[in-house]
From TrEMBL:
GO cellular component, one term: cytosol
CDD domains on file: Flavin_utilizing_monoxygenases (cd00347)
Molecular function GO terms recorded: oxidoreductase activity, acting on paired donors, with incorporation or reduction of molecular oxygen
Start and end residues of each Luciferase-like domain: 19-316
Pfam families: Bac_luciferase
Taxonomy, superkingdom: Bacteria
Family: To bacterial alkanal monooxygenase alpha and beta chains.
Descriptive protein name: Luciferase-like monooxygenase
Source organism (scientific name): Rhodoferax koreensis
Length: 345
């Protein structure tokens, strides 16, 4: 899709509570809270948090708890999960949790759901011993839709014959959580289209591979639902801005090291850029060169230009930006520079 540059691009945030070398992991959770307040003040539209389990790099394991704390510290920004890994849980319990969150922050809650485990196979089994749980994902999402939309927000609940008929997810109120489908493949795009849900493609996971096809499938197959009349899609992208390109490239060394180590199964806290270098094999160096060439890393103006072009290429008017940096101040500065470039305030 060759679209003109989006004149007014809306920016949001996905934070993963990344563990930092030399710091206690619980500091990363508190840093997420501080970042949410910072991004609200800067004018960002949404602030999403992720769910991972037994992951030594990404320590945000309970998005619904973190969202409650963010709700208590903010007043405007939308707050969401990106996402709840639904096969681990009973949809009724998830609906109840997010109904409570909506009561705490009415009209500001996004319930992003995904099918991936957010963990290794063994950890996933400990969360839910049913090894076939992901096969029931479409039915889980439909039950979640019914329970989150029932009551004052206008939904009829689950139909007669369903085991959940007559069972309600409380508390009800005039607003309801907005369910988003998250994915990095065609599966999530097609399911989101079929159920009439907004769709977020994890561009940062695939380095963009499959994004155009997934969005095309989503738009062509979209069926209107009570919650959404027309397709609504976004991309979750990784980006890092600094006052100069040289500074941004230096800060990016932490992410580079993580990506190269992850490819060999080595996971740990994010290293400071001055300690991130290690010898790379020729194959790793080729991967690293490609990562550097494609990365949205540079000055605020450079990164903003890349984001606008990416949004135009995929026909979206909102991007969700993920930024890792070992220094929390550098991460806050990155979001500040982008907010300035897009005049978010």
């Amino acid at each position: 899709m060759n679209s003109p540059l989006i004149s007014r691009l809306r920016l949001s945030v996905l934070d993963q509570s990344v563990a930092l070398a030399g710091r206690a992991q619980n500091e990363s959770i508190r840093e997420t809270l501080a970042l949410a307040q910072w991004c609200e003040a800067l004018g960002y539209h949404r602030f999403w948090v992720s769910e991972h389990h037994s992951h030594p790099t990404i320590v945000g394991s309970a998005p619904e708890v973190l969202m409650a704390a963010i709700a208590a510290r903010t007043s405007r920004i939308r707050i969401g999960s990106a996402g709840v890994m639904l096969p681990h849980y009973a949809p009724l319990k998830v609906a109840e949790q997010f109904r409570v969150l909506d009561a705490l922050a009415p009209g500001r809650i996004d319930l992003g759901v995904g099918r991936a485990p957010g963990s290794d196979f063994r950890t996933a089994q400990l969360l839910n011993p049913d090894t076939n749980a992901s096969a029931h994902f479409p039915q889980q999402v439909m039950a979640l839709q019914a329970w989150t939309l029932e009551g004052e927000s206008g939904g009829p609940g689950l139909p007669p014959g369903h085991p959940g008929h007559g069972v309600h997810a409380y508390p009800h109120g005039p607003t309801a959580p907005a369910i988003w489908m998250l994915g990095s493949s065609d599966y999530g795009a097609e399911l989101a289209a079929h159920l009439g849900l907004p769709y977020a493609f994890a561009y940062f996971i695939t380095e963009g591979q499959g994004a155009a096809q997934a969005l095309a499938l989503y738009r062509s197959g979209f069926r209107a639902s009570p919650a959404l009349a027309e397709p609504l899609a976004t991309l979750c992208v990784w980006a890092l801005a600094a006052d100069t390109e040289a500074e941004a490239r230096h800060l990016f060394k932490s992410r580079e090291r993580f990506r190269m180590d992850r490819n060999t199964g080595r996971l740990g806290p994010l290293l400071p850029p001055d300690e991130a270098a290690r010898p790379y094999s020729p194959a790793e160096q080729a991967q690293l060169d490609q990562l550097r060439a494609n990365a949205l890393v540079g000055s605020g103006a450079q990164v903003a230009d890349g984001l606008r072009r990416l949004a135009a290429a995929h026909g979206v008017d909102e991007l969700v930006v993920i930024t890792w940096a070992h220094d929390p101040a550098a991460r806050r500065r990155s979001y500040e520079l982008l907010a300035r470039e897009f005049d978010l305030g």
